[in-house]
Amino acid sequence: MDTSTTSRLRRAASPSRSGERRTMLGRIVLAATCACACGQPAVVSTDYSFRTPFTDINPFTGMRQIEKWDLGGTAVAHRSFVRLTAEAQGSKGWMVSQQPLTMPAWSAMLEIRASGQSPHLYGDGLAIWLTKTHEHVEGPVFGREDKWDGLGLFFDTFQNIDHSHHHKHPYIYAMTNDGTKEYIPDADKADPGKQALPGAVDNSGCSYEFRYAEAREDVTVLNHTRVHFSYKDKTLKLRLQQTSVGMAKDWYQCFEMKDVELPNPAFFGVSSATGDLVDNHDIIQFVVRPIEGDADVDADYDTWEKAEKVEKDARLADFDLRPPEALQRDYQRVLRAQAEAIKLLTGDVETLKQQLEFQLSAIATGVSSTKKNLDQKAEAMGNMVDHVKNSAEMRKTIDEQKSTIEKLTKDMTNVASNVGGGGWKLPFFVLFAMILGVAGVGYNKYKKLYGKSHLP
Fold this sequence. Notes:
This protein has five helices and 18 strands. With 456 residues, the chain is α+β, with helices and mostly antiparallel strands. Among the domains are: 41-291, Jelly Rolls (Sandwich); 392-454. The strands form three sheets. Strands 2, 3, 5, 12, 13, 14, 15, 16 and 18 form a nine-stranded mixed beta sheet that branches. A hairpin with a 2-residue loop joins strand 13 (225-232) and strand 14 (235-244). Helix 2 packs antiparallel against helix 3 and helix 4 (329-418) runs antiparallel to helix 5. It is elongated. The N and C termini lie far apart (117 Å). The model is unreliable at 1-41 and 452-456 (pLDDT under 50).
């Protein structure tokens, strides 16, 4: 072996190259892992998928936008999430994919965050759509029109005590519609031939606590719910997983519905609505991947998720510092601690950005709602002032008429007492009664016009 070859090998084996070798190793593992089960690579379809951070700005509106997706209603794209609805009553927000879905089999993961201040009363929920048309028309079904043509995946958080339910809320369920049936959540009033009823199809839903109460001490912006749903061989599967800071629960198998017919092509959509009860409904990311061959849907997703983690760890490995001077034990210890601190700081900064954005969005909604309420109250008080002013003027007029009538009565009584008796008294008192009657009619007219509460 010649000297140059030996020198290259030494440089390759030196600690200064260890970071590069780890990065290269991570990429090799990633490539091997991505060659997933059944020999198919873990491909993400960019036509339907989106991930944070959302940095694309619309040059005409100055608002953030999602590539290949349309946003409408109250939906607002922030850097680290899309807020469909905030904690404001009567809100409807939605987003719809611009690209039609034509894949015969696919796997999708939607990461959501449903949260609010109230620990018990909240609503209404959100929905994932796969419909025949791209157009979104606002309506009563989680922010979308009734009688949709396609699939609806509903995340219902509103426990309507006026309706008869056969399940516990929050409730997740799937429903298909041919564009002719009305959606109705009331089991007692449903007509299967004309209406679409939650839970009417076997194994089409489950109860799952996917919502977070923000008043809890252990809740952060990193509390999300992952919704993994797939379609293959006319079978629709859905499972859920809750996440926290650096942790995730085991997957919960929600349902596996058979003989599901979907439009082809179809368009993905997500919508949300609030009524008298409110919640924040946020979308973090949406990842769609094709499924081919005989691959197991859940195993395919788990393999892809592991590959994602390997890739992330490989990127973080670039922070590891291993210069030649760090051969001594103390230097190695210090630099290793510095590298770990940089990794933690990077994660904390990103979390802080999300936390600030989340809180600022909530503050903006609160300020807007408060201003609206104050404007309404100011207008009502202005109307009340005008009403009181008019009432005072009418009170003065009525008092004047009352004094005139009393004076007239007194004068007529004096005349009657000073004049001797005779047959002329009867017509006189009839005329006097008529005058009093006319005055009483006027009095009652003003009394009815301005209300009893403003009269003596």
